[in-house]
Specification:
The structure is a homotrimer of 206-residue chains. Chain A is mainly alpha-helical. Chain A has one domain. Chain A contains 7 helices and no strands. In chain A, helix 1 packs across helix 4, helix 2 runs antiparallel to helix 5 and helix 6 (151-166) packs antiparallel against helix 7 (171-191). The first copy, chain A, is globular. The model of chain A has no long low-confidence stretch (mean pLDDT 89).
Chain lengths: 206, 206, 206
């Protein structure tokens, strides 16, 4: 990864870890529990992708994700009460992370020789699955299944990235266009409160 | 797979996806959430099996499962309110899927050289684990742990399949006898309301 | 494994399975559900570790874990109402299992050539992840994220084991010192009611 991509990766990991740690703290987890939830939120998507692609999960080859999660925990412990004023900043960081994780996931999948539609799914898993595991751990229905154009932003960005790549565009260009698609979709969806329709078949739970 | 097995596979996938999508709709998931829950219900068991056996998950090699789940979602969106009249049909389809998934899982495991008891477990995982992941996602205690002879039908069918295979019966014969065992066990258990005993050690939760 | 390690492994597996089966029985699971939860509690940590390390999960190569879980289920069915008087014994057995699983996990990881910090994490996953999956299955927030110095005992023992190993100490010595660290940390933490601080950032759940 280039230095620029590494910095974005660090920012994204930090933002994802913060989101896990804050939700854990709302459920009164102890420091260890909050750390684990933060870590899993940050690396869960990439880990599931790497298990499916049968390669070694990225966090097992570089301790930076452990350290980054530790800094995120320290940040919440020290400045927890001021965090609420930074919600917009974290929303921005979170969207940067989502964009980068998605294109990195799609790129890795194409590089391993999988077809384009697998790359789109793997990009989305990389971006969104960490949040699903986080919500399972805090015993809530995963947020992305009910609210927000979150995973759909990954799907859109993954498709754009893959199409650009198949059209022979330079790797960096594909990543930029794909990532911006994720970023813009998410920002616009939240700004204009765009949601997917809710499914309701009027039937009681079996 | 033969054409006949492919048709059964499609029917089973469709029925499993419908079961996931309907439970998701009861929890007011949006279209994306319902699609993901339907997809995971259909392919979750096979994916866990393939991760444990260290082979590439089947759905990553053929987009048919994605398409089939899409059709299932479309079906629920369009005909949701009539679905309740089709409950018996879906129960039948679901049991066909359970039977096929179980024998396919056991067969794949034996073909990879694992012992018979691993094949029985992998058959059961293929049939039943998708529903467990579905229930975790909708934040309910997995149904198969509390009600219905569902997974036990897989265990029974897996044992019959494996014994037939070890006795040298032709592959197609094993699959037929094993699958029919799953199918008949499930149908009879529901018809005569046969349940496993509930465990109760009179102790409070720790 | 030496005969001594095998006996400890059996005791640990039995204790972990009992813990899963008892929590399942408190939620009125049927025999099958209780068996599955017991089994997953016992082998879940090692299975996740082996998936991450890309080796075949231990329980797929030896049916002893299936049998051990079956004996644990039989024990709870037959003697369930007396189990409450054995809580201290089971706490001891559970701590033995935790200690052994942790050092086995760390040892396996180092043997595969991974760095020391990965070994510490894998030791902790081996010891503690089974209980997390158990709690997800019974639809509770994982206990280790909120109470008890449980996983921290694994981390401490994993660090001690890895340091000893890196210092060139004999394998058996490392395992003994590492295992005793886990065991002593857990026993002392419960005896003196030592907990980690709870995180609370005064913010409402998003």
């Amino acid at each position: 990864m280039s230095l620029f991509a590494q910095i974005l990766d660090f920012i994204g990991t930090f933002a994802f870890a913060i989101s896990g740690i804050r939700l854990a703290s709302a459920k009164r987890f102890d420091w260890f529990g909050a750390y684990v939830v933060g870590f899993v939120t940050a690396i869960g998507g990439g880990t599931l992708r790497d298990l499916l692609l049968d390669v070694t999960p990225g966090w097992m080859t570089n301790p930076i994700y452990l350290i980054c999660t530790g800094l995120a925990l320290l940040w919440v412990i020290l400045f927890g009460k001021y965090l609420i004023h930074l919600n917009n900043t974290f929303f921005l960081f979170d969207s940067i992370g989502l964009a980068l994780f998605t294109v990195v996931g799609a790129s890795k999948t194409l590089a391993l020789g999988y077809p384009a539609w697998v790359a789109v799914i793997m990009g989305s898993i990389t971006g969104a699955a960490g949040g699903v595991i986080r919500d399972v751990f805090i015993n809530e229905i995963p947020l992305i299944f009910r609210k927000e154009i979150y995973a759909m932003a990954c799907v859109a960005g993954g498709i754009v990235y893959t199409v650009c790549s198949r059209l022979g565009m330079h790797e960096l260009g594909c990543q930029l266009v794909g990532g911006l698609t994720v970023f813009a979709t998410r920002i616009l969806a939240v700004k204009y409160n765009i949601c997917l329709p809710v499914l309701n078949d009027k039937e009681r739970k079996r």
